[in-house]
Amino acid sequence: MISGLGTCLPKTEIGNSSLPNDLQTSDEWIRTRTGIESRRRVTPDISVIDLACEAAGNALRSAGTDSVDSLVFATTTPERPCPAAAPEIAHRVGQSGIPAFDVSAVCSGFLYALASAGALITAGIVNSALVVAAETYSRIVDPTDRSTAVLFGDGAGAVVLRAGSSDEPGALLAYDLGSDGAGAELIRVPGIREQPTGDRWFAMAGRTVYLQAIEQMANSTRRVLKDCGWSPRTLDLLVPHQANARIVEALARRLELPPEQVVCGLSRIGNTAAASIPLALAGALSRSELRPGARTALTAFGGGLSWASTALVWPQLTAITSEV
């Protein structure tokens, strides 16, 4: 069950009007098509691990604990291919010696990490876990590509999971995970063997991804709600991956949910990939959109292609946020 929530954002905020002129775009064009007004970006001295450690420490403080038994880290933007970042994050937040590993599922990464950590707890291997997601997409997005440069921001979020019973608020009641490797080329960053050609940037087939994201998140949400014995009508709040406002709005229509029951909090942070759901949860708490006792579903779609959903009754907790 979720017992703590922490987030971290870079201090540097880049508004639409501050984007490079060679993108040939405007504040109005970006707002209309994405719902994004600005995004956060790290400075050269801040790493994705720095963001992750700050969010992880905040989650521990939110949970009122100074130790966990395991750590799972989700990212698409690691500092290096090897070693995994999770052991270093664990060490830096005072958790040396615990099992710690990375998960790579792009924008679905946080929910895949949540399911992995939850399974470790359910199996009795550990009693608690830190689930951390952090991204620095500003380092892999082509700054001259209007289709991606306006969308993505940097940030991190983390939750503390602990063992508990299914009738406690915060218990993760069901999961739905899936993938389709036939769409592997739709969202991609070139591999090491491809990069000597000069193409090293993140790329996305926007229209196809848009349609797939709506379909897969809607279907995944329905499946996880069914497993809980819920329906869209009995759901209090849906927290989807914050890709862009149009996808969030279309997902709400597909599930026949009113806009006020679907969190869309990306206007000032953009698409933060794997970190978007914990950041959206913290934002919803700060705006009083998310309250204790709310029947809540989380859903995401990302590269792979991959998708994931889970559901819970939201617990009483206070999110701790900070900037670096």
TrEMBL record:
Pfam families named in the record: ACP_syn_III, ACP_syn_III_C
NCBIfam families, per the entry: fabH, PRK09352.1
Source superkingdom: Bacteria
Keywords: Acyltransferase, Cytoplasm, Fatty acid biosynthesis, Fatty acid metabolism, Lipid biosynthesis, Lipid metabolism, Transferase
Domain Beta-ketoacyl-[acyl-carrier-protein] synthase III C-terminal: 225-314
Pathway as given in its UniProt record: Lipid metabolism
Entry's Gene Ontology molecular function annotations: beta-ketoacyl-acyl-carrier-protein synthase III activity
Entry's family note: Belongs to the thiolase-like superfamily. FabH family.
Enzyme Commission number, as recorded: 2.3.1.180
Keyword Acyltransferase belongs to the record: yes
SUPFAM superfamilies in the cross-refs: Thiolase-like
Name by which UniProt lists this protein: Beta-ketoacyl-ACP synthase III
The Beta-ketoacyl-[acyl-carrier-protein] synthase III N-terminal domain, residue ranges: 101-181
